[in-house]
Write the structure tokens for this entry.
Amino acid sequence: MRIPSALVVSALFIGALVALPVLSVGANLFVAGTAETWAHLAATVLPEYVANSLLLALLVAAGVAAVGVATAWFVAIHEFPGRRVFEWALLLPLAMPAYVMAYVYTDLLQFVGPVQTFLRESFGWRRGDYWFPEIRSLPGAALMFVCVLYPYVYLITRTAFLGRGASTFEAARSLGLSPWAAFLRVSLPLARPAIAAGVALALMETLADYGTVAYFAVPTFTTGIYRAWFALGDRTAAAQLAAALLAFVLLLVALERASRGRARFAEAGQRKAERKALAGGWALIAFLVCFLPLLLGFLLPAGLLFKLALAEGDAQWGIRYAHLARNSLLVAGLSAFMAMGLAVLLAYALRLSPSPLTRAVNRVVGLGYAVPGAVIAVGVLIPVTRLDHWLAARWLEWFGENPGLLLTGGIAALIYAYLARFLAIALHTVETGLARVTPSMDAAAQSLGCGPGEALRRVHLPLIRGSVLTAALLVFVDVMKELPATLVMRPFNFDTLATQTFTLAADERLAEASTAALAIVAVGLLPVILLARRAGMRR
């Protein structure tokens, strides 16, 4: 019997620890009255939740895949005017919270907003004389998600396109395929794991979102979970809906993995293809394909927020926002650093020992991203509070004084909630990077006497550096704008830019909320640009 390495054992322990909040929520399924609650949900609200969630997921998946792959292909493989700017600027929508986008576009496109007011004044129209799309609808919510979530697909797919070997593409061209056919039949299938990982992250974010769908009045699993848990106080119903949401996400992931079959996506060629210069109409198309997502996802909403901030803004601007920015940077930086290390450990352990247990731990960790932040927070509070009381009792017994709440009284429990929520982002990204490292590298390292740890340090980490930095970037930006778990788990008098933004925007004080929203963007811009440029350095 083969004894697992210390690295694999450590990964299993850490994975189980991170998955504990999800399991804690799932434990509520076994309380009394579960069957009756489930029957009531299935007979009343469940069909609507399923239909809306499924349609929303399909629209968002199609949108982020189309936008993310197109922009990644043009930026990574071609040369055209503005490419160097788009390379990092296309990431900027990651810093824009989806619920802020919902407020901004509703204010812009509603009946009394500037767009429809301009149309009525220009053409002399009145209500009922013209048709205008309703932004506060399910397609409108899908558009908001596509605008802010396409960078998931763009960033991971761009890394895959940058690392592709020239020999494979050139072999396809030598067989008579046109550049477009070679892209569809060779480059796109090779990038499939990256595309699937990006789409999966976008879907998990979509299905776990609360602010956008609640403001647009679109009933989904998440709005049902919040209503059952916090409005009705029915923890059993909320657990049922959360379990159904987890099953829904697990089904999507399983279908994608099953569709791959036994296909492998590693490339042995190390010579990279040179960028192809575009001119004329193709250069214009490439520019527009990259500019429109940037305009809708960042430039337009940021410009509107900036205008509101200049016109009114928040009277508390100053030292108050310096403290909010410091708090946001602290929790985001710590969470990104820890998630990066844990993701490498978990993904590499699965590569070393692809056993059912290791796969199960990684999959459960990945499901945390699909659980709403407030539900994760409750799942964290249950075990951490018990541990806090046990530690306080032991401290009182040993030292004769009560230390108070050691974990929930500080940011430790908040960081734990962030890891349970966002480690899936880093894990998906790192797994995608490792999948592109041919298994012959492991065999070569082993034949030269390298153990698992040394092979990881000297072989795998240099090869997946771009994916690791991408993982850190995604976690950092997501923690910067995370809201529900922060509202529930933050220590007393510990506010962030995200909580300040939501508190003001929820009260329809959009002009004041614009200041905090712009601060989130400003704080997140520097790491977005630096990490994006470093992730592309291996080009």
